[in-house]
Design brief:
Layout lengths: L5 H24 L4 H12 L12 H21 L3 H4 L3 H26 L4 H10 L5 H8 L8 H13 L1 H16 L8 H29 L6 H20 L4 H13 L6 H26 L9 H23 L8 H9 L5 H12 L5 H19 L3 H7 L24
Length: about 425
Amino acid sequence: MPAVTPELFLLVTGVLLLTTVLAGTLSSRFGVPALIGFLALGMLAGSDGPGGIGFADYQVAQTIGVACLIFILFSGGLDTPWKAVRPVLSPALVLATVGVMISAGIVSLTAILLLDFSLLQGFLLGSVVASTDAAAVFAVLRTQETRIREDVLALIELESGSNDPMAIFLVGVALALIAAPTTPLLNFVPDFLLQMVLGAAIGLAIGYGFTVILTRAKLRQGGLFLVVSVAAALLAFGLAGVLTGSGFLAAYVAGVLAGNREYPGRRAVSQFQDGLAWLAQVVMFLTLGLLVFPHQLPAVALEGLAITAVLMLIARPASVFISLAPFRQFDWRAKLFVSWAGLRGAVPIVLATFGIVAGVDDAQAMFNIVFFVVLASSIVQGPTIGLLAKRLGLERKVAPKPPPPPTQKAEETPA
């Protein structure tokens, strides 16, 4: 085997990135979300595949996943129009908090009863898969040929961008209880409230400051706008984390505020961040695919199918119908569609690494189950979202274009 030189490392990295994009494009042509192609190539390049790349550093993968999620959420926020999401702000926040807790509870109970997990192990698994994935939702919904009703689309995207903090908090609580089972649950409530308030406040401050800097700095080099946008995403996450706030919420809120204000280079920043978000998805899914050993997946196939079925057919619908019950603007058709559009993606896989890093019993089996759930969710739900929207009559109504004015031919002058 040749020595790993910087040139060889960069060559292999470039080949992997390009091949991953091609794999994602190919999978999208068959109606399967691109993330499946990204993950599949990672598995093929890993230890069990022909690539033979030995990678099992869950701490590094966790760091890469967190870094990538920052830019995915920030970019998603930039593309979130406030006028569209403002009417659905309340239902989205309820679904992103209460809904996540309901999903976590139902899956936890399933894991305890069917998989013989302990109470806290079941709680950890339920928390890991409870949130929908912003990267998967943004990628699938924004590439659908079917134009989904604006209020429903805004609800799904806002929820997916804001429910990660709740899932991360629940995972943290589960790990804390596993380490110290006698800790009173009420002790975690002030921590959660502080995380949410600080995360939102810091996100608003960074998003506002970002636009002010670009407006007043009068940067001479256009590329510096893009550097400042990267700094804004990192500052939002980092500052919130240092102050014990939710960094993911801060990154998303900063993007939403910045995306709804006018400033020089706004279009270029949005396009750059969109490309950066796609690069982040490729890197994140490729890295997570490298962590998986395909020969281990058949051993958890039945458990994975059971959790997937409960999550898609019971936990997610129950969380949606209960959370949205007070909001009459969404009928049963919209609620059913929101239930089915709750895609799982990289976030649950990243969160599953937390248990392995913390040394939780059966954490590797849990990671494999979560990976199986993500694959099944993407393969089953992703390609059918557009079809379900049509069947439920949730297509966006587009006003017909007026006919073009008749053209008048010039009268020919007789010779």
